[in-house]
Every structure is written in C-alpha cells, then in structure tokens.
Amino acid sequence: MAYNSQYGANGGNPYGQQEYEMHNYNNNNNNGYSQDDMGAFFAEIDDIKNAIAQFDDNIARIESLHNRSLNEIEDEWNQKQIDALTARTSQISGSLKSKIKTLEARSQTDSTKKLQVEAVKKTFMDSIQNYQSVEATYARKYRQRAERQYRIVKPDATDEEVRAVIEDDSGSQIFSQALLNSNRRGEARTALTEVQNRHKDIQKMERTLGELVQLFKDMEELVEIQGNDVVAVDNTTKRVEQEVYKGVDETRVAVKHARAARRKKWICLGIVVLICIILALVLGLVFGLRH
Predict the structure, then answer these.
(1) Which helix (H) or strand (E) holds 144?
(2) For the residues 89-101, what does the mean pLDDT come to?
(3) Nearest CA to 94 among 26, 22, 40, 25?
(4) Hey, is 251 helix, strand or coil?
(5) What pLDDT, on a 0 to 100 scale, did the predictor assign at position 164?
(6) How far is Cα 270 from Cα 261, in angstroms, rounded to an integer?
(7) CA distance 32 to 145
(8) How far does the chain reach from its first CA to its final CA, in angstroms?
(9) Long-range contacts of 35-44 (CB under 8 A, 24+ apart)
(10) 3-class state of residue 21 by DSSP
(11) Greatest CA separation found in the chain?
C-alpha cells in the first residue's frame, strides 16, 4: 500500500513531507522469500518501523498545524492541510494494524520473531496514545478559545449557554440572537465566524479521537487473543508431554511384565527338562537292574 504525499495538489507541503511507501510482503513468496525466511521477516519489521516513524511524523505535523490554527481566525488553507494529513495518517494506522496482526499470527511458534513483533506493536500503541493526547489537548484549546470569543459578544453568558453554542449544531442560532443584541457588531461577527469554525474543528477532532480509541482497543484485543492462543498451545503441549510420559511409563511396565513372563517360561521349561532327565535316569536304572 503506497502512501503518496497529498500536498502536491494543495500547492506543495511547507513541512517537506517525504513520500512513504509500505511494501507488501505476503505468504505467497512473491518477493522471492519463503514465509519462514528470517531475511523476509526482518524486512517486514523494518517496513513496519518506517511506517510508525511516518505515523509519528504526521502526528507532529498535525500538532504544529493545530497550533497555527489557534492563532488564526480564518485560515482555510491550514484547515485543508489538517484534514488531508489526518486522512493520510488514518490510512497508515489502518495498514499498520493489519500488518502487525498478520505478522503476529505468523510468529507465535518462533520466540525471536515473536519478540520483534511485540516490540513494534508496543511502539505503535504508544504512538496511538500520543496521537490521542495531541487531539484531546487541542480540542480543549479550541473549545476554550471559542468560549472566549462568545463572551466577547455576550460577557454575561452562562456556562450552559456557552456550551450550547460550541457543542450543539443549533449554537449558531443562539449566537445570532446574541449578535443582534450586541453593541460591538464588528467584533461579534468575527467571533461568530470563529466559533462556527471551531465547532466544526472540534467535531472532526472528536471523530478522530473516537477512531483512535477503537484502534487502541483493537490492538489490545489482538494482544489478548494472541495471549490466549499461546496459553492454549502451552496447555496442549503440556498435556501431550504428560501423555507421552505416561505412555513411556506404561511401556516400561509392559516390558517388565513381558520379561517376567519370559523368565517364568524358561523356568518352567527348565523344570520340565529336569523332570525328563530324572525320569530317563530312573527308567535306565530300572531296566538295567532287570537285565
């Protein structure tokens, strides 16, 4: 899956984002590697690491763009950059989740591979949490700025009224009513524009936060499922070992019984032979004395 820069269509990327591509290694040996080949495995690990690095870099740029947006009343170009970069980062995160899930499923029987996959998975989950922190921080800052802008129009507004303006889709109607009663029409119109923009921005960030929460849960479930699979394999292995040891013990007992039975047969045979010899001697003496 290729992640090509989307900034070219928007007049160039001022942050100098480089093109990134995640290679597609699969089980069909299309790259000349077998599934168990360690070279192919570590190539996939490096690919995941590079994708996580790009993911982190995008987060840093999104944070920078959010910070710029806080200082601008109306910057359509900046918001387009945020939207494009957010969509691109979402694609990378989805691909990373799928890639790590596939690689982990194929690495359970190899301790070296398993440790490598667990390491990149932990790094990715840490990055998800960092992204959540960035979005939550700037959603709060956007909200605070919108509250200040509304109080410019209506200084005596209650907290409930301010919350309704920022959070509800009907907030613009409340704002328009306050605008009619305001003596500072010019500042009020500017404030209305910003609050409306902040309302849209906050909604987008809340959607992103929801996606990140679900992504983190999916990764946690992946860890739990794989852990349960490992426990099941360990239990099966132990049970097989116990059955093997039990079979070996039973075999040893059977061998001892067989040896004892053979020994008894030889003893019985020896007794029979001895009796025959004694009978032969007795009969020989009896017939010898008669003659």
Answers:
(1) helix 111-153
(2) 94
(3) 22
(4) helix
(5) 78
(6) 14
(7) 56
(8) 114
(9) 35/106, 36/110, 38/112, 38/113, 41/103, 41/107, 41/113, 41/116, 42/116, 44/99, 44/103
(10) strand
(11) 160
Amino acid sitting at position 255: V
Phi, psi of 94 (to 5 degrees): -65, -40
pLDDT at 59: 96
* In the block, residue with structure tokens 């100098």: 16
DSSP 2: E
Helix, strand, coil: what percent of the chain each, to 5? 80, 0, 20
Tokens of 187: 């500042």
Percentage with pLDDT > 90 across the chain: 26
Question: pTM for this one?
Answer: 0.62
DSSP 19: P
* CA angle in degrees (0–180, nearest 5) for 103-18-51: 15
Count of C-beta atoms within a 10 Å radius of residue 63: 17
The half-sphere exposure of 151 on its side-chain side, counting CA atoms within 13 A, is 14
Which pair of structure tokens corresponds to residue 164? 């309704």
**Interval 26-54: pLDDT, tens:** 444 444 445 457 888 999 999 999 999 99
Asked if pLDDT for residue 232 goes beyond 70, the answer is no
pLDDT at 177: 61
The per-residue pLDDT for 278 is: 80
Q: Within 13 A of 64's CA, how many CA atoms are on the CB side? A: 10
Three-state DSSP class for 1? Answer: coil
Q: Indicate the SS3 state at residue 183.
A: coil
Residues 6+ apart with CB under 8 A from 13: 5, 7, 81
